[in-house]
Design brief:
The protein has a 6-stranded mixed beta sheet. A two-stranded antiparallel ribbon has the order 4-5. Strands 7-8 form a two-stranded antiparallel sheet. A hairpin with a 4-residue loop joins β2 and β3. α2 packs parallel to α3. The longest helix is centred in the first third of the chain and has 18 residues. The relative contact order is 0.19. It is 26% helix and 22% strand. It has one domain: Rossmann fold (3-Layer(aba) Sandwich), CATH 3.40.50. It starts with a helix and ends with a strand. By secondary structure, the chain is of the alpha/beta class.
């Protein structure tokens, strides 16, 4: 199936899930990530903040656990630069005040940029993925542009509530393959 059709299908599936399921899945994935990733070996994490109105998995429990258990790990979050259509990588600390920006995205009120080259692990959003670990997002290609600018050894993680589809039929040279996908 192609990206456009998969995007439509999985947006509808995700929207139909009851709120308790989203909560359970978010906590289950947080537990798996904390258990299965050796966070001590990483220095700079890029992770998306959830858009709960879009029924995205909630990454805030993971972020808080990482601050508590791995204080050496620098946490960064995205902001879309609308003029250049690229992701910016912004520092997030326990003291960071967040504001809701366009599209309902949470962002640091006073952004502190961190060079993308310093990102050695990333948790990226997705709607659906295939058995080859290619993902379908919201269709703007922001992460496909951002991830190649990160550390050459970056560990790229996706999180999903659903099992993979067999194959995304219109994967192209610009699509970035993820290293691992975590489900509840």
């Amino acid at each position: 199936m192609n990206k456009k059709d998969l995007r439509k299908q999985f947006k509808a599936l995700r929207s139909a899930l009851p709120a308790p399921q989203l909560l359970y899945d978010s906590w289950a994935i947080t537990a798996r990530l904390l258990r299965e990733i050796n966070w001590k070996q990483y220095h700079t994490l890029h992770i998306f903040l959830p858009m709960l109105q879009r029924h995205e998995l909630n990454t805030l429990p993971l972020i808080h656990a990482l601050w508590r258990d791995f204080p050496h790990l620098r946490v960064c979050v995205p902001r879309v630069n609308m003029q250049e259509q690229v992701l910016e990588n912004l520092l997030l600390t326990p003291e960071t005040r967040l504001v809701v920006e366009s599209f309902g995205q949470l962002e640091p009120a006073l952004p502190t940029p961190v060079p993308a080259q310093e990102v050695d692990i990333a948790v990226v959003p997705l709607l659906v993925y295939d058995k080859q670990n290619y993902r379908v997002g919201y269709g703007k290609g922001h992460y496909d542009k951002f991830l190649p600018t990160c550390s050459p050894n970056i560990f790229k993680i996706g999180i999903s509530q659903f099992a993979p589809v067999e194959k995304i039929t219109d994967v192209d040279a610009f699509d970035v393959r993820l290293d691992k996908i975590f489900v509840p």
